[in-house]
Amino acid sequence: MALVTKPTFVYMIVVFMLLVSLCSSEPNTVEAVGYDYTQGRPKGPEQWGKLNPDWKLCSDGKSQSPIDIQTKSVQQDPQLGWLHTEYKPAPAILQNRGHDLAVFWKEDAGKLNINGTDYNLLNCHWHTPSEHKIDGKEYIAELHMVHESSNGERAVIAVLYELVNPDNFLEKLLPFIDIINQDDINLGNVDPSLILFDHEKYYRYIGSLTTPPCTEGVIWTVIKKVQTASVKQIVDLKQAVGGVYTLNARPQQKIEGRTIWDSEVKKASPKDL
User: Fold this and answer.
1) Which parts of the chain are coiled coil (predicted)?
2) What 3-state class would DSSP assign to 189?
3) Active-site residue (options: 99, 125, 127, 132)
4) CB count, 10 Å around CB of 238?
5) How far does CA 133 lie from the centroid of its chain?
6) Which end of the chain has fewer CB atoms < 10 Å from its terminal CB, N or C?
């Protein structure tokens, strides 16, 4: 008889705890958010573009996110290089937006620089499970760091998570996550640099917001190195949102001929020299 491996056992625990969460928590009001993530429902992701005239891109857009990144199809771009970020502590709040939990910085918390353009950090929020996939693999969660330039263009850094050790940033937020309801919580100064991710190896493509109105032209940076979170952290994130938003990941969208760039320059082997 086959033995259950440790990773499989851990995932089984998470699934069980999430089922308990779904059965015990009060569902959020879908009408308040205007959409949900359950396929086949009247306000599910296939219907987003029909629910509001301003959300038409959710159905008709040709550069939508998230996507399944197929590593065999990516193209190397040596000009991407190091991911330039300059973050600093700033006053922030924790907000339950109904469909997710988000940390909003109320003052200047630093920036991301892409090709000489500064994108100021606005917020970070979580999706469970991950929205992006790598070679078809889904991860337990995904963090989005949303930035905006002075002319309103968006750039998002996506960090993927698997179940192993606790995440330091989430651990500091857990006391607040455990008590949040519909009222914002003042977090005091929050340092975005506590969100750990590799600045060197990542994928880059042009996509969209993954929630309505699904605005396109977003610069996506999907970090290659997967970070870790604990079972408790993931379960607490889900329970804080609850209801039909316990699973809040949009399905993968079609590539539609887009190029996915890889920042990692492969070293030539001796036979190639």
Assistant:
1) none
2) strand
3) 99
4) 23
5) 11
6) N
